[in-house]
Write a structure and sequence with these properties.
The complex is a heterotrimer of chains A (about 270), B (about 290) and C (about 210).
Chain A: E1 4-5, H1 8-25, H2 33-67, H3 85-93, H4 107-137, H5 157-173, H6 182-225, E2 227-228, H7 235-265
Parallel strand pairs in A: 1-2
Helix pairs in contact in A: 1-2, 1-7, 5-6
Chain B: H1 3-8, H2 12-28, H3 39-49, E1 56-62, H4 68-84, E2 88-92, H5 98-112, E3 117-119, E4 122-124, E5 135-137, H6 144-151, E6 186-190, H7 194-206, E7 210-214, H8 216-219, H9 223-228, E8 233-236, H10 237-248, H11 253-287
Chain C: H1 4-22, H2 26-63, H3 69-86, H4 102-133, H5 140-153, H6 163-176, H7 178-202
Helix pairs in contact in C: 1-2, 2-3, 6-7
The chains are: A mainly alpha (about 270), B alpha/beta (about 290), C mainly alpha (about 210).
Chain lengths: ~270, ~290, ~210
Amino acid sequence: METTTMSMGTFLWTSLGAFLTLGIFSFLYKDNPFYKFAEHLVVGVSAGYFVIILWHNGLQPNLFNRLNDGNFYLLWLNSAHWWYIIPAILGVMMWTRFSHKYSWVSRWPIAMYIGIATGLAIPLEMKNRVLTQLYASMRDVQWNNFLGNGFLDNTAGFSQLLVFVGTIAALFYFFFSKEHTGAFKGVAKFGIWILMIGFGASFGYTVMARISLFAQRIQILDLYTESSWADSAPGTFLFVWFIVFGIFILLALVEFIRWLGRAKTA
Amino acid sequence: MNIFERMMSVDRRWVFLFLALVCVLTYKVDFEVEVRVTDEVRKIYNFIDTLKPGDYIFVAIDYDPNSLAELHPMTYAIVEQAWRKNMKIVFTALSQNGPGMADQAIRDISDSLKLVKTYNGITYPTRDIVNGIDYIFLGYKPYPALVIAGMGQNFRLPFPTDYYGTPLDSLPMMRGIQNYNQMKCVIDISGTSGIDMWIAYGQTRYGFPLALGLTGVMAADYYPYLNSGQVFGMMGGILGAAQYEKLADNAGSALDMMRIQLYAHMVIILFIIIGNIGFLVSRRAKNQ
Amino acid sequence: MKRQIPLALVFFFGVLMIIQYFVPHEASEWTFEFLMDWIYIIGIFALALGIWSLVKVSWDKIRLRRENWQYAIVTLLGLVAMICFGFDYFRNVFNAAGLQNFMFRHFFDYIMIPIQSTMFSLLAFFIASASYRAFRARSLLASLLLLAALIVMIRFNPYFGPLTAYLEQTASWLLNVPNLAAKRAIVIGVGLGMVATALKVILGIERAYLGKD
């Protein structure tokens, strides 16, 4: 088996990754402390990561860099760009959301944000989702090439006609302001057939997506087991021992914390 | 209890184990799955292939580790193709954990460019990828819709600095670069609703050529945009990634995963067939 | 006042952004850039609420010794550790050097990536179990769904010999014709719904975002 050589440090990190991966997979058997540990760890680490990204990529360049020619003790009012204090104050006002008495203060920045977002959305979503799509549906049907070239040609006339009729029929199905009776019911029924084919196609793609997530984990675990920290070191063997060692350490840690909890409540 | 009723009541953990065994054993056997390239993927490859050295493209790496399996191969294949052709790339990452994914991808692809490689009969020499000259990584900002709309005016509006804290104006690559008008295309690789934002707040408002790299879960939903011309190409899931790797002659993890896909799909189909036979048999027994 | 002013703000900014879209004047572009510049900053402060919620919930769990409170310690330790590494052990708070911190990167590469991607990979097993137990051709519509799914799933299977090319073409036709029609109808419906809801918000008919008095 071909092995790749890495430093001891990298080997330990990959062992940690493998341990956490197997800890999550252990949930397939049943819920257990290794899964819970990994789950809670990722929640905390992800939240911490997000805080750092928001600070370094968000607040730092967009707010503090613009105010750094001002003085903190004067609340940056002597800065050349002092007006950036105002969105900062509006942002801080959002934090009153958790107060029963002052939560009404948070409505002002929320209202500003919602107003801007909805105003931006209306013309764009109307054009993007409705007008452009309707225009694309109403193309000339190629009557002179109705059956197309070859087997089930996507560009054939009948395909274009089916797209147009199918779209209308599916829209009929979603129109609930009128009772689905008579001819309306017939069109809506054709619409639901079209929708079912669409959902089936989505399901087929979804299966591929889900399997690929597991397949990538197999690739990574395979990569881990083929790695060694020295040319002649039995990497796989050591890897397994690191996993077992890690599990014992974790079990001991969990039991110790539980013992602490019992000792305090006793 | 007949055999079908017994099969229906089997513990689901046996189903999990069977699937896991099939996937692991399939991966251990080395064979290739032939992948046929679809038009929607070919259009993206051909577009990038026709661009010239020095052209700018925008790559949005808008996915989290949960979509890494399907989307990382797309990123690797496209970015390596672009860098081998000496194009300049502006990256951004508008998902919560996207910056880390983008940072990792940039590092890994930069390392792979230090090797001489031959793709589609063309031998590419080694090259060093330099931040500020070959690429800019803008980083992350929340609320992708507003960021995408803002970048259409000026990249410096939402991103006064890049991910590493360097002011954009001090980076050589950003001289004369204002917004999407200087980009030949935007490629959004995403597993979130950020794709809808790129189409609505980006392509609809500013009219740039947009290509998508999507997870399989979302792929079927974006055919309307492909048909209407709002999107000029689309890679759907791991199959799309495998098709792109095949076109680029850069076999990577996507093509490698296809053999697991093949047998796992056959297992799932077998389960569906068995489940339905069991259902029909028990329904017939109930009717009798 | 506590409700009227926010409603007036929503109306004012909503109408302003709609007018801004249609007016190509320099003043309109300046307004857009000005508002975007502010909204990025306001939005970042809003996200801090989520982080505070997590800290509060975890702390309460530990303080009140609720079930599995020990794991809340792990959550908080992870949060504090990541913040510490991200600020480069608080040596580089006001510059982005912390983003290149060794531990920060390695925690992302060897903790976040494995756990998050593995959590979602569990779905592969659940979809297999669901296919076995729940995916039934109970009616004509369910059979249609099942058939479409099966065709899309077997499209890259090479073991059908001469039928392989026809299966691929059938799958391609399914995706580009009936699937296209279905999804287009959904897109149009969603678009109309979004525009209607956005108008209701701007006009003050929809007020759920204001919360309770």
